Amino acid sequence: MASPYRQLLAIPGARLFVAAGLVGRMSMSMEGIGIVLMVSAATGSYGIAGAVSATLALGFAAGAPLTARFADRYGQHRVLVPVVLANTASYTLLIVFAQAGLPVWTLFAAAASAGLTQISLGAWVRARWSHVLRDAPERVHTAYSFESVVDETIFITGPMIVTALSTGVHPAAGVAAAAAFTLVGCLALAGLRDTEPPPRPREPGAGDRGILSNPGVLVIAPVFLMLGMVFGAIDVSGVAFAEEEGHKALAGVLLGCYALGSGSAALWYGARHWRRPLSRRFLAGLVLLTAGLVPPVLVGDLYLMMFVVFFSGLAISPTIIPGFGLVERLVPPRQLTEGLALVSTSVGIGVALGSSLSGRVVDARGAHAAFFVPLGCAVVAAVVGLAGARSVRAREIAATRT
Q: Coiled coil where (predicted)?
């Protein structure tokens, strides 16, 4: 491992919370695909499957910032245990309802409950990095890059695991495994008290300005919303495309190639010392990500698509990492977990919308046409980022001077 990453993992307690975070958020790359495979098998419709997956993502988007706010105020361990137990119960109900053939509305209810209790664990782990590196803030960039590598490792392995379980064992096996990963990882992280950020209770009588009052977040969150639509649309389109090509079991490999490109870029990105400001790197990533999504709409062969999406994924991490870095730079420490979770859950809302829209396009026009959805979403993300660039840059400069 390159020296900067080896030095990070030498920090006392870092290896443990990294491992717990990895296990706990394996589900983020499994739940969407797992639900699509389970519900489509039960109902015969990708449209319904995508909508159920979208419901879970919307619930996640609503609940995760709230649990993150509680973590900032009361401490991570006090919040993790009850929430993850409720999450496990909700996933159990979703599986039971799907396998019992109950009315479709019950699937939506269970998915909403599972989403509301799903924790944005990546934000919680990044908050731990900011805490343990509080005396070396210049290393936060490398830590966030490392977390992006962890994320992409999850997005490489998770889809392959969930598709193998759902297609080779049982349609519900992938969702069950995702819930189990979440339970084990969250309980493990709750037990790691030494690296936990201290709670920052709100002072009595103090103003409580919401995280959305931060102008920088108001620009970054919509961009991450559109990026989430890219990811959600890629998931559904990729699964459907592999099935149309007669290789449904290779859907996870296809999506893993996309994540492999992003993970490779993250390793390179985090090991470098950058002089350009975060805001400019963020914009450059958006432009490159948009350009990288053009080739998939032109390819009609599954194996060539695997090659193409690897290169499409190279711009993901160099966009996501500076985006998280901007949030860490622009929000006050007492709202850090909430700010990071809000950006993550903006992705969750986007995944919901992208999954649903792409599922409808698959049902109406076929899988190949659905690859236009992520391309269009990336264009919108770049436009929004460019429109808010001056505001974000001004606040980045102000934050650097304080």
A: none
> Among 66-70, 96-100, 365-369, 378-382, which is the least confidently predicted range?
365-369
Ordered structural domains, the chain, with CATH: 7-199+211-401 (1.20.1250.20)
Q: Find the helix or strand (DSSP H, E) in which 90 lies.
A: helix 76-100
What does the alpha-carbon distance between residue 224 and residue 238 come to, in Å, rounded to a whole number?
21
Instruction: Output the six-digit token pair for 177.
Output: 């495994």
Any idea which of 42-46, 96-100, 268-272 has the lowest mean pLDDT?
Answer: 268-272
Contact between 196 and 71 (Cβ < 8 Å): no
List the one residue out of 20, 341, 1, 3 whose CA is nearest residue 194.
20
Residue burial 222-235, b: 16+ Cβ < 10 Å; e: rest: bbbbbbbbbbbbbb
C-alpha distances in Å from residue 385, one per residue of 227, 286, 330, 336: 11, 8, 16, 21
Exposed e or buried b per residue across 252-265, where buried means at least 16 C-beta atoms within 10 angstroms of its C-beta: bbbbbbbbbbbbbb
Mean pLDDT lowest among 17-26, 160-169, 260-269, 315-324: 260-269
Cβ(263)–Cβ(156) under 8 Å?
yes
Separation between Cα atoms, residue 54 and residue 57, nearest integer Å: 5
Of 393, 401, 12, the residue nearest 193 (C-alpha): 12
Residue 299 · residue 305 · CB < 8 Å: yes
Percent of the chain scoring above 90 in pLDDT: 27
Answer whether 111's CB lies under 8 Å from 59's CB: yes
Are the C-beta atoms of residues 314 and 402 closer than 8 Å to each other? Answer: no
